[in-house]
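Review box. Two proteins, two foldings.
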Amino acid sequence: MHNIRLYGQFLRVAVLGKVQYKADFFVGIVSVLVLNAVNLSLIGILVYNFNTLGNWNIWDLLFLYSFWMLSRGIYGVFFWHLSDLEEMIVSGTFDAYLVRPASPFLQFIGKDISYTGVGDFLVGLLGFFLAAAQMKLQWQLGRWIYFVICVLSGALIQMAVNWIGASLCFWTTRSGAAVSIAERFTVLMQQYPVNIFGKYFQIFVTCFLPVAFINYYPSVVLLDKAADGIRVWQYFAPLVSFLLLAIAAFVWRKGVKRYAGTGN
């Protein structure tokens, strides 16, 4: 409970720092909206020329993309600055977290928030309601609960993957390349249904780098897309998120224990 209150205080300070620059906030939001509009236009062009991708039409794809944007928005607001760890290790500023009477991780994740995540979340919300209206989705309470849980799980999966990548700099000093590759790969995967790729690729994004659980498998369940019946592991997004978080926390703890500074 103490850690939760402490994290809340860190976030409060971060928010107060951001609201001092209102123009920067609105420019950032607009830029995110424009970028997402371009991405959606490219997906629309593909579907217009090929009618469907796999068995996914334009509204299915909008739902898929919006699902990702909702989870990415949450991830973006609270955890986007995970990539800052490399520079803090190189410059030596991370050392200050180790001498304070508080968790280094809480200090690190509470040091900043990213307003661009707000733009992603708004895009996701708008796209979701538009797709839901076009597909005339009528969910029972259980499906709404599952939807909310999976959006949160998707945010945690993205956080865990990038947390693991960022933590590698405790051993390598530089981990930006690994984080960038993971981020680009994740972005590519969330824009298209996994079933349009080959079997071995599907196995990779399900078992080894399980980014398919961010939005694809939850969408398969919510849109009844499983042609040969629902497999139980398609409901595993929450379990995958907790498993990845446990791995990320383990890697972080090992990294902090062996960290000896860079001499800067």
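Next protein.
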Amino acid sequence: MTTIRISWLGALALAAGLLGWVTNWWMSRNGFPTPVLHLSSLFTLAAIVVVTLVLGMRVNRWRNGERKRMLDPLLATRTLVLSQATAYAGALILGWHLGILLDQVALVSVRSTLVPVWSSVALIAGGIVMIVVGVLVEGFCRLPPDDDGGGQEANEGEYA
């Protein structure tokens, strides 16, 4: 499994931002509501972040030497996949709502409400938190290099 590449997260956020901007531009000029997630979706984002962190902390404790029990390899793999999915979903949410925010800022003077603007800002912050937690927990799943003294480490970059 490959590591998360920040450049891929940036490209994904940029593509989602462009799509969000174009979609919001078209919808707002044709009488449709703003395509922003409801603020209650922040509870879902928070739940995903908490579950990712809890599972990541279990793997991190095992990796740092608390090995009273054997770590279930399936749990470690699921934690790694969840961390990467959290980061990529965060990039999508960040980009989409940043694109919407850019179009909404231009319309602030003619809008009677700022709810879409504040919703976009809140979800942008949620996307950033998801990216940070995803990258952090992916790092928890990485095995430390062996100290063999024999030159090249065999498991450097491998996952728990």
